Amino acid sequence: MTQHNVCIIGDGAIGSLFAAFASANDVMVYRGMREHKTGVKSVTLFDGKQTSRYAEDISPIGTPLTYDLVVFPLKVYQLEAALLQWQAVIGDSPILLLQNGMGGEEIARKVLPLQRIYQATTSHGALKTDHESVRHTGMGNTLAGRSLSTPADLATDDKIRTIVETAFPPVTWCEDIYLSLWQKLSVNLAINPLTAIHDIRNGQILAPRYTSVLDALSHEIAEVMQACGLNESAETILARIKTVAQATADNFSSMHQDIAHQRQTEIDAITGYLLSKAASERIAVPTNARLYQQINQLSV
Ligand code: KPL
Question: Which of 16, 93, 271, 296 is least surrounded by Cβ atoms within 10 Å, i.e. has the fewest?
Fold first, then answer.
């Protein structure tokens, strides 16, 4: 069996988890680290197993190499700088954008006009407990697929699918990753701002006082999705939001945590993205616009 080599850029919790899974599954892992920085050294997996040294560090001024896949598990707002910094080292290796929210593909396409771009989003929970340690806090699933702007190439697409499925299981490979990312976005559009604004856990948005706002959000999201050519009803969106809120009832959403720790939020890649699509389609989305404003008021 050929051993695949995967480069994972950055030192975040999800990237470290990906690296730990991949090396445990016999993938050769390189970590793209900034100069003079050492990465996370220990990842405690959900089943309690600990991984120790699992990757070779490379730097953005290192020797260019073709990787089977380069993963960017970064926030959308960190993506452009990282792509510019690493483009010389990764050459024309296919890349996988792994993040919450939307807009990543457009950013990557501007920097790398000819690259093969794949996209993914994950529901694994991971937490950096200190500079060198990460804890896997919740088993999840990863949705992945070829981006809209990348032409189909059966052999390469199959190879990337095999690598992602081997490196970071379980994976659902999506023939229409754009739709899958929008479906995930529809959940984040409701749960993330509402939990952050009202300082509540995910499950608490199911209380009767949030019924009308969830309804309004679902209708606005459905209208914008339909204008983008995606066939989703408000009822389907509302049902999905409720299912995820129930399944993650005890969690604090990522936006709740960002606000609580005074970190930059992903509101621009979530609600900001919807607002920009709504504006170009001339659709009024007052409820989303209000949540966007409220999050920006709470942000540092
Ligand atoms: O993706 C999430 C997030 O917190 O960003 C949800 C699905 C809302 C789970 O917390």
Answer: 296
Q: What is the pLDDT of residues 178-233, one digit of tens each?
A: 999 999 999 999 999 999 999 999 999 999 999 999 999 999 999 999 999 999 99
The tokens describing 203, both together, are 């499950």
Active site (annotated) includes residue 110: no
With a CB cutoff of 8 Å and minimum separation 6, the contacts of 255 are 188, 192, 193, 195, 196, 265, 266, 267, 270, 295
Q: Tokens 């309004």 appear where? A: 216
Distance from C-alpha of 293 to C-alpha of 121, rounded to nearest angstrom: 25
Nearest to 58 by CA among 92, 98, 90, 93: 90
78 Cα–ligand 1 center, Å: 19
More confident residue, 278 or 29: 278
Listed in sequence order, the residues at least 6 apart from 293 whose beta carbon sits closer than 8 Å to its beta carbon are: none
Give CA–CA dist 18/34, Å, rounded: 18
- How many angstroms separate the alpha carbon of residue 109 from the centre of ligand 1? 26
Of the residues 37, 75, 184, 277, which is catalytic? 184
Nearest-angstrom CA–CA distance, 300 and 297: 8
Structural domains present in the chain: 5-175 (3.40.50.720), 179-295 (1.10.1040.10)
Residue of 75, 192, 217 with the most ligand 1 atoms within 8 Å of its CB, for mutation: 192
Nearest atom (ligand 1) to Cα of 245: 8
For atom 6 of ligand 1, which residue has the closest CA?
Answer: 253
- With a CB cutoff of 8 Å and minimum separation 6, the contacts of 266 are 75, 76, 77, 100, 101, 192, 254, 255, 258
* Reported ipTM: 0.97
Residue whose structure tokens are 């976005």: 185
For residue 203, give the DSSP letter: G
Q: With CA atoms as reference, report the closest residue to 205 among 233, 179, 238, 156.
A: 238
